[in-house]
Write a structure and sequence with these properties.
By secondary structure, this protein is α/β, with parallel strands linked by helices. It is built from ten helices and twelve strands. A nine-stranded mixed β-sheet has the order 4-3-2-5-1-6-7-8-9, with helices on both faces. A three-stranded antiparallel β-sheet has the order 10-11-12. Helix 2 packs parallel to helix 4 and helix 3 crosses helix 9.
Length: 267
């Protein structure tokens, strides 16, 4: 019987015996092999579900949460992973790991559990560090979401170019749906990858553009295609997060009147 803990312990023991310079050279191969090994052991569970990956410097956690609520309220089984926690249908628990995106075997195990629970959608918060360590390999992404890009986490990647190239890999590997922040100054780094379906969102440009943005007693209100949204989320940055989630829902054929009460119920 497969023991994730025993394998992890053995791998850490082997790593300690290898000089760091040698390991760093072979690290991409090491991480790639582990990623596909995890997917193989658990039977490539993502292939039978629609996996939605959310990446960007800021807003990933909120967008992941909003998307999961929208897809769930549509009557579909949903699983989600992010810094805010884990979810498989009605079961939710905190993320106690010291990482937003779990390791390769933990991720594939989670996907297998979501598959067994009958989930149709999985929403994943995808980090540049997770991609750097190849944790995304072996996961079939149906939709990639770009929130924004800022010069952060550069020290762990060596350069800003390495940082955004890690995030770009999600879009290179996702061929069906791309959801893009049209307002971000780095939009061209993510908006030009080929996809069957592509949708842009923003406050001044894009396919989904929010109008009449105004603060309210409960949060922020805005209008989108003649539908008024009165949310409990404050600030224009949360309007952008809502637009990202609404764009994902639209790509999966959920209309705005259906999504309106879902967003308005979130506090």
């Amino acid at each position: 019987m497969f023991s994730e803990g025993l394998l992890d312990k053995n791998l850490r023991s082997i790593k300690k015996l290898i000089p760091k310079s040698v390991f760093d050279f072979f690290a991409p191969v090491y991480h790639t092999m582990l990623a596909y090994a995890g997917a193989l052991i658990y039977g490539f569970p993502s292939r039978s579900m629609k996996v939605i990956g959310v990446t960007g410097t800021k807003g990933k956690s909120t967008v992941t949460f909003l998307v999961s609520k929208i897809m769930e309220a549509n009557g579909d089984g949903v699983a989600a992973i992010g810094s805010l926690g884990y979810k498989i249908k009605n079961k939710e628990w905190p993320n106690t790991l010291k990482m937003t995106m779990p390791g390769r075997f933990k991720l594939q195990k989670f996907l297998a559990e979501a598959q067994r629970a009958g989930c149709k959608y999985v929403v994943l918060e995808v980090t540049s560090e997770g991609i750097k360590q190849k944790r995304h390999l072996g996961v079939k992404f149906d939709c990639a979401v770009f929130t924004n890009l800022h010069k952060e986490h550069v020290e762990s990647h060596g350069s800003f170019e390495n940082y955004y190239k890690a995030k770009q890999e999600l879009f290179e590997r996702t061929k069906n749906i791309h959801v893009i922040n049209a307002e971000d100054k780095h939009v061209d780094l993510f908006g030009n990858f080929p996809a069957k379906h592509k949708i842009f969102y923003g406050l001044t440009k894009g396919d989904l553009v929010a109008h009449k943005i105004r603060p309210s007693e409960q949060g922020t209100s805005f209008e989108l295609y003649s539908t008024d949204f009165n949310t409990h989320l404050a600030g224009e940055f949360n309007v952008m997060n809502c637009l990202a989630a609404l764009a994902v829902g639209a790509m999966y054929k959920i209309d705005l009147p259906t999504m309106k009460p879902i967003l308005e119920s979130i506090k």
